[in-house]
Each structure stands twice: as C-alpha cells, then as structure tokens.
Amino acid sequence: MLRVLVVDDEPPARARLGQLLADCSAGLELEQVGEASGGLAALEAVSTLAPDVVLLDISMPDMDGIEVARHLAQSGNPPAVIFVTAFDEHALQAFEVQALDYLMKPVRAERLCAALARARRLAPQEPRLEALARGLGTTRTHLSVSERGRMLLVPIDEVVYLRAELKYVTIRTPERELLTEESLTSLETEFGARFVRIHRNALVARARIAGFERVRPRPGAEAEGGEGHWEVVLRGATERLAVSRRQWPSVKAAAGL
C-alpha cells in the first residue's frame, strides 16, 4: 500500500489531487494519509505520518517545495517526492536534467497514476536537489539539523554565526548552539549575501555585527612583531570572535566602516 501525502497551499488544488488519487486507486494500491497547506506543515506531517510519497507543490509562501525536499533528503528514511508545479518550460528543464519527477498544473490523472506507479524509485537524491536549487537560484530559509533522531529547523534569520570545528559546523543562535555536517564553504556559497567570512573557520551574520573591539598584544609581543587583532562584537552572542588580518578589509566593508 502506497501512503501518499498531498502538500499545496491552495485548498482547491489539494482537493483536486485528492480526487485524482481516488481515481488512481482503482489501478494502484494507495491511500492518501493526509495533507498539508505549507512547507513547514509538510515537514511536520512527514515526521508524524511517515508517507511513502509526497505530492509537493513548489510555490508556497512559508517554504518552497524545493527547500522542503532538500530537508527531507537529509532525514533518515525520506519519502519519494513528486513535485507539482506551474513553472514555465524553461525552468522545467532543470528538473529533467536532474531526473526529478514533476507534474504540471493542472495535473492530469494519467500522468499522476504513472508517476505514482514508479514512485518507489523516486527517493530524494540530495546532490540532484542541491544542483536543482542552484540552477533555479533558490536558497533555503532554514537549516535542518538532526537532534536525538528528529529534525530541527533553524531559521537563517536567527543564526548569529557559523563556525567550523573538526568535522562539524556550529550553528549559533541567541538561544543555543547546534551542529551540522554541512561544510562552511557550501554554506558560504549559498548564504554569502547574509554572512561575511571573518576567519577561515567562521562566518558571521552581517545583520548581527554590532561593532569591533581591538585586542592589544600581550606585553612584550610588539617587540616580537605581535600587533594584536580585532574581534567582532555580535548581537545575540556574548562571545567575541577573532577577525583575521586577511579578512579584516572585507569585514570592515560589510559593517559599513
């Protein structure tokens, strides 16, 4: 039995997909286990309902379907994803290049039934989804991390800094620290407009920079060539992070100094 979750922010679209699923059930063993009206609700529904397939709208106000699929791909046992979209033909080429299945609105029953028939082979492929996101120029609104076997979403707006430590990157928010296995380089590539690199191992949110503090060299260090360094003062974190000499010009520019 194929368990299907329907995700769309428009009630008529969800109702239409429900009717089409009923039609497909004549030739396929399936059941609609639920529906969600947005991306965040979809992630919660997947964790509680454990569907085999998600019919996933792309254009939604809180979190688009591509980001939802990227978060799902990082989970332990992701469902198959069939995108439902009104994108134009040019954008759809990106889906075809990455071999990701999609349905064009208005959805036709034959096309939906065919997609569901091969859905077992459509589990999310994270590299393909990352390439698709880059091709369409989309960035995430949240980072997803795993904690005690469940997915936590961290809004990008709440991140104070990202710091690489051994195999992980620490995500610092005003409330807590979390760990992700994503690389600092990939995060900088995706969110470079929001963050500035202050050191080879740290990115800070541009909007969180409150100022800078000069750390003088220890006594006697000047004679040894020590010149001290600058540390960034951040809104939402008490700790100070060192700014490397190499990054200091770009950090000053980001702060408008």
What does this protein look like?
This protein is an alpha/beta fold and 257 residues long. It folds into 2 domains: 2-136, 3-Layer(aba) Sandwich (Rossmann fold); 156-254, OB fold (Dihydrolipoamide Acetyltransferase, E2P), CATH 2.40.50.1020. It is 30% helix and 30% strand. It has 8 helices and 15 strands. The protein has a 5-stranded parallel sheet, with helices on both faces. A 5-stranded antiparallel sheet has the order 10-9-8-12-11. Strands 13-14-15 form a 3-stranded antiparallel sheet, with no helix packed on it. Helix 1 (11-24) packs across helix 5 (109-117). The model has no long low-confidence stretch (mean pLDDT 89).
Task: Give the SSE map.
Elements: E1 2-7, H1 11-24, E2 30-36, H2 39-49, E3 53-57, H3 65-73, E4 80-85, H4 89-97, E5 102-104, H5 109-117, H6 126-136, E6 142-147, E7 150-155, E8 161-165, E9 168-172, E10 177-180, H7 184-191, E11 195-199, E12 202-205, E13 209-215, E14 229-234, E15 241-243, H8 248-254
Parallel strand pairs: 1-2, 1-3, 3-4, 4-5
Antiparallel strand pairs: 6-7, 8-9, 8-12, 9-10, 11-12, 13-14, 14-15
Helix pairs in contact: 1-5, 2-3, 3-6
Summarize the model shown:
This protein is of the alpha/beta class. The protein has 8 helices and 15 strands.
Q: Tell me the number of structural domains.
A: 2
Contiguous runs where pLDDT drops below 50 for at least 5 residues: none
| Portion of residues within helices | 25-40%
Provide the CATH architecture of the largest domain.
3-Layer(aba) Sandwich
Ends: how far apart?
Answer: 62 Å
Highest-level CATH class of the largest domain: Alpha Beta
Q: How is the largest sheet built, in terms of strand order?
A: 2-1-3-4-5
Question: Mean pLDDT, nearest integer?
Answer: 89
Structural class category: alpha/beta
Q: Can you identify the CATH superfamily of the largest domain?
A: Response regulator
Largest sheet: 5 strands, parallel
